[in-house]
Amino acid sequence: GKEQLLDFLGYQQRVLTQSNFKLPVDSHISANSVISTLKLLQANGFDRQCLPAELGGDFDQSKFDQWVRMRMSVEDVLGAVGKTWADRLRRNVALNVQKEQAAIVPVPKKLAKAKKQIQREKEYLSFVRRPGETEMEFQKRKNACYVRRNYHRNRMENMVMQSEAKEGAKRNEALKAENKRLRDLLAQAWCIVQSLEDGKQEENSVSYTTASESIVEEI
Known about the structure:
- By secondary structure, the protein is mainly α.
- The chain folds into 2 domains: 2-55, no CATH class; 61-218, no CATH class.
- It is built from 5 helices and no strands.
């Protein structure tokens, strides 16, 4: 009855294995109980984690499906973190480019050339000795003009450097905030992974205990 059906099923499996893998199969493994079958399989080099629960092993299709779902969830979380960071970086770069372009005021070439010409004429007139002006007065006026020009130039350079320093500080703070946000997201992802791994280990322990109790009852 049942034993004959099992023997015939074993014969079919041996023929199928020999046909598919082109390997001779001279014997088969069987015993009177699950624990005995498991011992024979382990003695022949089979790993318990790769054997189904029906043969006393730890492999369960439902656990495999759960592991696949866990990996997909983790990859989705990590992928979302990378995508969010990349999108934010692209937006920041685009905004910075727009700000820099907006700060550049287009000036017509003719107008710019005229302004430069007027500036040169003013500087030339400033350094030309006026009628009735003594040498001492001329030198005094010229020195005062140099001092004013250097003062305004230094003031403009200081204003530019201060503006650049403020902009750099703002960018630094933004990068720090973004770095902190990414670290928090990474920590959350690792917590999710750890919780899923802990749940998996706990389920493996419970299933192993249940399988052991069932084997003891059969013996």
